[in-house]
Amino acid sequence: MKALYKEASLLSSKVITNCYSTSFSMGINALGKEIHDPVYAIYGFVRLADEIVDTFHQQDKKALLEEFVKETNYAIERKLSLNPVLHSFQWVVNKYNIEQKLIDAFIKSMEFDLFKTEYDQKGYEEYIYGSAEVVGLMCLRVFCGNDDVKYQELKRPAERLGAAFQKINFLRDIKDDFEEKGRTYFPGIEITSFNDEDKELIEADILKDFQDGFKGIRDLPKNSRFGVYTAYIYYLELFKKIKKVKADRIIQERTRITDFKKYYLLIRSLIRYKLKLV
Fold first, then answer.
1. CATH number for the domain harbouring residue 234
2. Helices and strands (H and E) in the chain: how many
């Protein structure tokens, strides 16, 4: 029965992933089948924490997050949780030796979302590390299995790729973050006077992260190379589309990639991958 509960728990994480993110689901499907469940488990955990700080406005979100952290730590220690998503997450943490410091950094960024509405450069970098880079590192632990040498070799590119993805999300969601949540993540930026020069500086920073992150994709294990490349292509396309939009439009409407375009990008990425152009 224990195996059945684990199976049901992993299925719960998969359902949450599919409900919340078609893009991430497509990326996971492009990974080797043997690592689908671990990545779903990581995303389910991340999604649950994000829901606490961004959605449950009528609740005491601080108390909910504290309970979530305690339950997470107990689950990892006991190797069991009655919360299916946390049971999945403890399994992947224990199986792949995901460091507690990565989990702690992620939770710290979620705590920031409870009270911080603007950031200086140091806080911005800390938030991005905890909210995005460490998630990439958790996944990298799965990709590399027991090969710690490979993990250390790819750690820096994984961090930069995660940072690029998160900064693009910030730029895409700049309107909603400000209007609905009162947050401004980019340091030194006033949304009310956001202009093309501000936008170009942010884009130059993102481009550098993209370039540094791409260097590691070719060296990823075969089980994850195509999946990560697919995610890279999707975000690169979104980045190109955002670059074409003037600053005054970015703060008025959310830039999107249609599902049809996502599937087109997936097929094109597969062709390039099969032709060994990546």
1. 1.10.600.10
2. 14, 0
- Quote the pTM value: 0.92
Task: Answer whether 75's CB lies under 8 Å from 87's CB.
Answer: yes
| Cα–Cα distance for residue pair 52/102, rounded to 1 Å | 19
Q: Which domain holds residue 90?
A: 2-274
Residue showing tokens 């606490």 = 52
Nearest alpha-carbon partner for 9 in 67, 86, 66, 73: 86
Render 97-129 in DSSP notation, one character per residue: T--HHHHHHHHHHHHHHHH--B--HHHHHHHHI
78 touches 85 (CB < 8 A): no
Q: What is the mean pLDDT of residues 60-80?
A: 97
What is the number of other CB atoms lying within 10 angstroms of the CB of residue 60?
A: 10
Q: How far apart are CA 171 and CA 72, in angstroms?
A: 31
Cα 137 from Cα 38, distance rounded (Å)? 13
User: Do the Cβ atoms of 257 and 234 come closer than 8 Å?
Assistant: yes
What tens digit of pLDDT does each residue of 72-125 get? 999 999 999 999 999 999 999 999 999 999 999 999 999 999 998 889 999 999
The total number of structural domains in the chain stands at: 1
The beta-strand segments (E) located in the chain are: none
What angle, 0 to 180 degrees and rounded to 10, lies between the N-to-C axes of helices 134-144 and 84-96? 60
Distance CA 109, CA 124 (A): 10
CA dihedral 111, 113, 118, 121 (to 10 degrees): 50
**Amino acid, single-letter form, for residue 263:** Y
